[in-house]
Write a structure and sequence with these properties.
single chain, mainly alpha, three-stranded antiparallel beta sheet, two-stranded antiparallel sheet, globular
Length: 264
């Protein structure tokens, strides 16, 4: 109960999808293991055991779990519900470091074929302009600008100091989005509105399904028949990695690439 109260009270300023990720992490990595214990009964060894259960997971997930354990109990101490923080001095178990990748030539061919359907414009913004998923969702017609004779996209990013920036819009994308009304989303959901977390997830599910079918997957009674040709690790963020890799392939200098990626 206290973990839920902490999230509701102290994490009010985060985006909807970020809050959902926090909830899922706290539930799966923490409260599923010690959620039935009284707050005052949780000892350092219990917290260390919770963290140890993350061994072999990504280093990022392990770090997040440790930080949230400390957050929950530090706030409990601050509110005088407990006298000491049992999660203050925890040792992180060994984890794995995952790295992103650009999409393969086969994946690129399937992706470009499938995204001829305007349902998937949100992913083309990542591929052609290097948008982060949240940035692609937020773009509106007013973000399509012409500067010095070039069509550019204003990416209203907030992740880093340099996230708010301009990126050239390649012609194959510009010709499809140039008539977007000023206040309308460039890549809307099927209802014509800005994507929600759930509509975005559904859109990605359909993208993967269509790519699998294009790549030769058989379908029986509307279900895909394994093995699926599209790699299990394929995620939208790889489209942003592809944008960056493509910059490198055409010898864009590192400082320009840094700006175009919105990196600080």
């Amino acid at each position: 109960d206290w973990a839920e109260i902490c999230l509701r009270t102290y994490k009010t300023g985060v985006k909807e999808n970020t809050y959902a990720k926090y909830e899922a992490l706290v539930r799966c990595c923490i409260t599923d293991h010690i959620g039935s214990m009284k707050l005052s009964k949780v000892k350092p060894i219990n917290c260390q055991d919770v963290l140890n259960k993350q061994a072999g997971k990504s280093k990022y997930q392990i770090k997040q779990t440790r930080q949230f354990l400390n957050f929950i109990f530090a706030r409990a101490k601050e509110n005088q519900l407990i006298s000491t923080n049992p999660a203050e001095y925890l040792n992180e178990p060994n984890g794995t470091k995952t790295t992103g990748r650009s999409i393969t030539d086969e994946e690129r061919k399937a992706f470009l074929h499938v995204t001829e359907d305007d349902r998937f414009l949100v992913f083309l913004l990542m591929y052609y302009c290097g948008c982060r998923p949240g940035e692609a969702i937020k773009t509106i017609g007013a973000d399509i600008l012409n500067q010095d004779g070039y069509n550019v996209l204003h990416i209203r990013g907030t992740k880093t100091l340099n996230a708010d920036h301009l990126v050239p819009i390649p012609s194959p994308l510009y010709n499809r989005i140039k008539n977007t009304p000023k206040n309308a989303p460039i890549a809307p959901n099927q209802a014509g509105n800005t994507h929600t977390t759930s509509s975005y997830k559904r859109c990605f599910h359909h993208l993967k399904r269509d790519m699998n079918i294009y790549m030769g997957c058989e379908v029986y009674r509307n279900e895909l028949i394994p093995p699926l040709p599209l790699a299990d690790d394929f995620i939208p963020y790889y489209l942003r990695h592809t944008f960056c890799t493509d910059l490198q392939k055409v010898d864009i200098d590192i400082r320009t690439a840094q700006y175009l990626m919105g990196h600080s």
